[in-house]
């Protein structure tokens, strides 16, 4: 489990632990870096000038050659490798890294996986047609389906995991409809034979352990079957960590026996997305957390768990090389980026004043990390902060939003949702203001004048801190408001520490905009501490990421203890 201190302790990142990254081609980037380092007392050696284009996106190869290599070389030559904990990307540094191109070996695996997928779809369609015929024969009702669950035309096309899941649900519904027809229309003499045929289809489609209690007429898995299911999942995980032609064939054979045709389809879909590097792009900042990891030693497709996250279930020893924290001082124009620095520093001495606005939707609390779960956390944050902080809090708890000019003046804090990539000009931000909008693509671009997303427009209007994704991050990539603001309001963490303690994923889409050293409430009194503890549900405060001890770089060259490039196999793709 994550490391925690039983009592609150302050452990801020220090200026000498910060490395500033500059685009050497852009004078504004160089000047902004100089200004920031002087104001924060960051040593002159803690800067790396990079030769980069002024674009939002760079290729994976350019990232490795023009970003990673110069930074690691400079840190090692200057003896800073084990000291630096935080990187700051300045105005002029690209936002996004493209996904890598598949290797020739991965392209072979994609072709092979496509063959498995086509075979599974063909056999599933045969079972579907058989089911439809059997259901129709049991009554005079109209046919259940206007069209095939798995359209024949889809066999050779690229499809998505969500399509596979939708097909599975429709197939399950068809199985349930057949059981209902048997119960309602079959004679006593017919039922045993019909249910035996039904069980045979289910076994072929879902295997020995791939069913769930959601399928009518099928009993829950026995304890022995549950143990077998777990053992098979674990074996599959080991096989897919170090894929080869032999291990992949073994994996498919294992899946077909245990999880049936649907397991084969799901595994082939996972392989095609993984080896084609689907979702291999990331924000440059999030990718920089893996600065010390050699290319190819961790998966780029998809997202990786953040071991700094306060709810991380693993241990630091799982990670053989250090991870870094990254924040960005950037805005549509450099004057606005400079203002972010000035406002952060002035707020630390003068205090963050103003109003708090929370935009929820009045939803009931749902399962963990669901829409209802996040909406309930927004409501919880508003209620707790209103009662304990002394800040005026306005909660919009319907499907309406803050939309009209002047509707949300003097903003100290804002968090809410959901208008997709369309900033609504209802806010005026006080110096030091912190806010984010929970929606996809809100940081796709910062410098495009036509960009409508939250981050670009909030920065343009003077917000000091915000965060957002450069692509589709999925909901749980956003920090929960009670965690992010609870940690920050405690006064015990700087901005970048609070963010990395409350974000779940790295090598992913999210970007933090703001001075990483910003500490708006570091002079917390007893009353503020109590309010922060309420926000934080009286949990122990976690250790600062700056104090997490990874193996030293000089002793961590052997990465064999890390599962490998394809370690992110999730057996849940095979079904319930």
Which key phrases capture this entry?
disordered N terminus; alpha/beta; 14 helices; four-stranded parallel beta sheet; 15 strands; 576 residues
Instruction: Pick out the low-confidence regions.
Output: 1-10
Query: Which percent range fits the helix content?
Result: 40-55%
Largest sheet: 4 strands, parallel
Structural class: alpha/beta
Distance between the termini: 26 Å
The coarse overall form would be globular
Strand fraction: 5-15%
Count of DSSP H/I helices = 14
Overview of this protein structure:
The protein is built from 14 helices and 15 strands. The protein has helices spanning 27-40, 60-77, 104-137, 161-185, 188-206, 223-241, 245-275, 284-288, 334-350, 371-388, 454-460, 481-489, 495-502, 526-535, and strands spanning 18-23, 47-50, 57-58, 86-90, 96-97, 282-283, 304-305, 325-329, 355-360, 393-397, 408-416, 427-437, 466-469, 505-506, 510-513. Helix 10 links the parallel strand 9 (355-360) and strand 10. The model is unreliable at 1-10 (pLDDT under 50).
